Every structure is written in C-alpha cells, then in structure tokens.
Amino acid sequence: MNNTPKFLIPFAFVAIIILVIIFKSSVTIESGKAGVLYKRFGGGVDLESTYGEGFHVIAPWNSMFIYEIRQQELSEKMSVLSSNGLEIKLDATAWFLPQFENLPRLHQEKGENYIDRIIKPAMRSATRSVVGRYTPEQIYSSKRDAIQEEIFEETGKILSDQYLKLNEVLVRDVTLPPTIKEAIERKLRQEQEALEYEFRLEKARKEADRQKIDAEGKATANRILSASLTDKILKEKGIEATLKLSQSANSKVVVVGSGKDGLPLILGN
C-alpha cells in the first residue's frame, strides 16, 4: 500500500518542471568563447549583444550558440600553378579569429561553419592569384617571403568585410616537381660558382693594381733621388763623412786629395 500523501505528487511534478526550466534557462560560456542569443519569439538573432564568458540566464525557449573567439589556426595544402603553368604544392597556415562585437552578424550571415564557407575559399583564391605571378625559381629561392606577405594581404582584403580578423599567413612548405627542383638547384650552384670566380678575378686585379702603383712610386722616388745627387753634393757628403771618420778614436791615416774625385783617402787598421 502506497503511503505517499496525494497532495505531494503535484508539488513534486511542479518541482521537476522548475528544475527543467532552470536547467534550460542557464548557460555557462567557457574561457576564450562567446555566445550569440537566438530569440525564438523575439525576432531571431540578437544583433545588439555578444555574450561573454561566465553564467547567463536566458528564456528556456531561446538558444545560445557558442563560438571560439581565441586565435585559431587553419592549415591548407594546395596545388597551384606558377606563372609558366607548372604545378606547385604549397602548405600554408592562417591565424585568425572572429570579431567579438560582430559575432551575431557572423552567426546570422555566415553560420557556425564559417571556416569552410569563407576562410578556406579566401585563402585558396589568394594563394592561386599570388603564386600565379611568379616562376618556380622565384618561389623556391628569392621571393618566398614576398609571396607570403602578398598572400596575407590578398586574403585580408577578401575577409575585410566578413566579420573576421586575419592575424598572419605563413607559407610553411613549397614542393616543386623533382626535375624542376634539380634544375633550379643546379643553376643556383652555377651562379654561385660564377660569383666566386668573379670575386677571385677582382681580387687579383686589385692586387696587380696595387703592385703596379707601388712599383711606379719606387721608380719615381729613385728618379727624383738620382736627379738630386750632383757631383758637388756627392763631394760635400764625402767630405762630411771623412771628417766624422777622422774624429773617431780608431787609428787611421788620412791622405788628402788621394781618393776618387779628389776626396780624402782614409787608411786605417
């Protein structure tokens, strides 16, 4: 026999309904996320408010759509054509995040799968457009940073009015057909060897010029010295040297006028 008072049954039923309503009316938004409220009987998406982190109470007949608003990463492997029609495989990564204040409009116009609808097509289109301006050699060697920057700018233009913020585009890997890669590497080695050879030639030319200038300087100095050494100057220098020798303490015999050109002749130990 059931001893439960009959008046408690309605109260239990009401309590259950209240708990269900409370459960359906409460939403907790975690860190790094934000919510968009959909009002079933109030005009659809609430375009005026974006709901931040924390606990929120909403009407049980409404719905809250949660979005990641931290920076996200999208990696794409693409096959694109260079300016001369050769296929190039490129691995690129985009860093992006939704604009917090425009999250309701993003939800209304683009939907929860906005990455597939907007970002992937924009990135692929920009990459094909940019890579199509360059040859495989430029992509492989000197223009990689420029290509990365141009893809970022082109993708940013496409996403500028899509309620998204593009932070960066990184080109992580470029793969060329093996024959093209080998030809480019061979050409680069040849260019490096040519530059090295030209450097050695230039160095040798500079050294030859230096030696020539040095030799010309010495020849000029000798000519000037020879022109300045007249007979009178030589005799005078000889007399000065004789006087200095005659004043030394060593034993010697000075014969005046007996040397060449009438210079004194000194005989000693």
Descriptive terms for the model:
alpha+beta, Tetrahydropterin Synthase, Chain A, three-stranded antiparallel β-sheet, 49% helix, elongated
Report on this structure.
The protein is an alpha+beta fold. Helices cover 49% and strands 24% of the residues. The strands form four sheets. The chain has a three-stranded antiparallel β-sheet. Strands 6-7-8 form a three-stranded antiparallel β-sheet. The chain has a two-stranded antiparallel ribbon with strand order 1-4. Helix 3 (114-131) packs across helix 5. The radius of gyration is 47 Å and the shape is elongated. It starts with 7 loop residues before the first helix and ends with a strand.
Write the layout of secondary structure elements.
Elements: H1 8-25, E1 26-29, E2 33-39, E3 44-45, E4 54-57, E5 63-68, E6 72-81, E7 87-98, H2 103-109, H3 114-131, H4 136-140, H5 144-159, E8 164-175, H6 178-228, H7 231-246, E9 252-255, E10 265-268
Antiparallel strand pairs: 1-4, 2-3, 2-5, 6-7, 7-8, 9-10
CATH superfamily of the largest domain: Band 7 domain
Summed up, the domain count is 3
E-strand count: 10
Q: Helical stretch count?
A: 7
Q: What topology, given as strand order, has the largest sheet?
A: 3-2-5
CATH topology of the largest domain: Tetrahydropterin Synthase, Chain A
Strand content: 15-25%
Mean pLDDT reading: 80
Span of the ends, CA to CA = 157 Å
**What is the architecture of the largest domain at the second tier of CATH?**
2-Layer Sandwich
Provide the CATH top-level class of the largest domain.
Alpha Beta
Indicate the low-confidence ranges by residue numbers: none
Q: What gross morphology would you assign?
A: elongated
Q: What fraction, in percent, of the residue positions are helical? A: 40-55%
**Radius of gyration in whole Å, from Cα?**
47 Å
